Amino acid sequence: MRMRKRNNLEPRMEACSTVWIQDPETRRGSWRTLMPEAGALHLEIGCGKGKFTAEMAALHPDVLFLAVERVREALVLAMEKALAMGLKNVYFLSVDAAELEQLFAPGEVDRIYLNFCDPWPRSKNAKRRLTYHTFLEKYRTVLRPDGEIHFKTDNADLFAWSLEEFARYGYPVQNVTDDLHRDGIVGVMTGYEEKFHALGTPIHRCEILMPAGRSTGELKPQI
User: What's the domain range around 15?
Assistant: First the structure.
């Protein structure tokens, strides 16, 4: 994500310290202490300016939401939005998705949201796609055995490639659609999603289920 520089970024970040987790590695295995009464823990990877995270948190006050965003210029806007809305069930992390296994204990997360991630269209960059099988293995480790990944994108090529990747490595998929909002708005939209939908761009979505059981190694391609 490319964004213009924000004025007074550091002071604004510090002003959001109540929702900004700056020591995430120390909370591995104990994230729910942030909200002991939470019925579930949901993680959004790449929350951008936070529209989806904030609106989902408002709709589901019994769920603890954690939102990851590496770009601080976007992260500060997301945190300010959550604070302005008075939300008590959402926190933010400025980390890389590749670090998830160091930040969450096995089975600690109930659901992961991947919304409009970078498609990395060149084949040589496929390993950087957040639906690449090495990332899927990281998600599988931190998700509970029956956990889910909810994936949305406007990029038809990325979606088709991702479905093949899920099938190749044995990840069951359900609720697949190539035009989520064809018959009316479904669910909470991200900021990008609103723009794409207004332009008439179809939104692709599916839910990936975690395979039964959990091994210590990476899933092998299905023959």
Answer: 9-209
